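Progress report, Aim 2. The chain analyzed during this reporting quarter is listed below.
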Amino acid sequence: MSIQHLPLDQHRRHSRLHERVIFSRRVHLLLGLVVAVLLPGLWYWGWDFWLTVPLREWMTLVAAVAAYCLSIGSVQRLSQLPGTKAYVYIFPAVTLCYACALGVLELFHIDYSKPYILSSYVIAAVYCSIGYYVGARLRRLKLAVVPFGKATTLCHNHGVDWRILEAPRFDDLRVDGVVADLRADLPDDWERFLARCTIHRIPVYHATKAHEMLTGRVLLDHLYENKFGGLIPREDYEITKRGLDILAVLLLLPLMLPFMALVALAIRLDSKGPVFFTQPRMGFHCRQFIVYKFRSMYVDHEGTGYTQEGFDPRITRVGRIIRKYRIDELPQLFNVLKGDMSLIGPRPESISLTDSYEKDVPFFHYRHVVRPGISGWAQVEQGYAAEVDDMIRKLEYDFYYIKNFSFWLDVLIVIRTFKTLLTGFGSR
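Predicted C-alpha cells for the chain:
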C-alpha cells in the first residue's frame, strides 16, 4: 500500500472519531435535558401533562429548558479559552442561568411551579458537574506535532499529551488535532498530509496559534505573523461593551457608594492627606486622562516611579488592605462612566512608565487600541508587573486580549477577578 493511500484510510478513521466526539456532545446535551428537565416534569405532573398541556406547566418547562441550554452553552464557550476547566464553571453557570430564568418569570408575573424549577436546578447542577468532572479526568488533550520549523520548540507542557510525528501518517494514534508551523518549508508529502487532515475535519493549528490557545499570550517575536490586522478588536463588540459598562456601573454604584464612604472614612482616620489619589495615565488611542483611586500611601513619603513589591514603607495600614483586595480601584467606576476606562481591559500605566516601557518593549503603544480597564487578562493571569521582563509577559497577555476581544473572554476575566479579590493574588 502506498504512502498516499495509507494516510487516507487513517484520516477517515480520525474523521469518524471527530464526528463521534460531536455526536457524544449532542447526546450529553439531550440526555441532560431528559434527566434535568423532563424527568422532574414526569415526577410532578405525570404522563397526562402531554395531553392537558396547562399553560403554567408549559411556561415552567420552557424556562427550565432555556436555563439548562444557556448554562451548557456558556460553559462550552468558556471552556474554549486558555486555562479553563469546564467542571469548575458548570455549577456557577447553572446557578446563574436558573436564577435569571426565575427572575424573568417573576418580573413578568408568570405563574410557574417552584418545586419543579428547584428540582430541575438541583438535578442539572449535580448531573452536569459530575459528568464534566469525570470527562475531564478521563480525557486529556492529545495533539500531534509536525516536526518542522518552530512547532517542536513551542509545543511542550501546558497539560497536553504531545505526540511528535515521525512520518506523515497517524498509524494507530488517536489525536484531537495536528500542530504545524505553516510558515516552514514543509516537504510535499507532509503538505498532502495536512491537506487530508483538513478535508477530513481534523483540526490543523498553526504552531503560534496553538501556543496562544494554551497560554493566553501572543508572543511578541511572532507578532508580525498576525500582520496587525489580526489584532484589530471587533468594532461591533466595542460598541456593545461600552453599553454594558455603563449599565453595570449604574447598577453597581448604589451598592458600592455606602461601602466607598466607609473606606474613605477609614483612610482619613488612618493618615493625613486626601481620600483620593489622582494621576495622569495613558488611555484609549494614547489619550491621557486622570485616573481616580483611593489613596493608599502616606503623602510625605518619596518613592520610585512604580509601586514596590513586598513590604513598602510608603503604604499605610489601610492601604495594605485596600490594595490586597483591589478596593483602591473602586473610584475608577467614575472613570468608566466618563468613558476613560472600561470595566475590563489592559491596565492603564502612568505616563512616565509608558514612555520608559515604550523604549524597551516593541509595540507597547498598541495596547492602547482598546480602552484600559479596572481589571484585565494580564492581571488575573500574571498579577502585578514592574520590571521590563514582567512587562513583556504582561504585554503578551494584553495582546491576546486584544486579538480575542469578545464577550466570553470578558466573562472569564470577571469570574477570575472575583477569585483575585478573594485571594489577593498579584497584590502590590
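The CA atoms of residues 5 and 331 lie 66 Å apart. The first strand starts at residue 142 and ends at 145. These observations will guide the mutagenesis work planned for the next reporting period.
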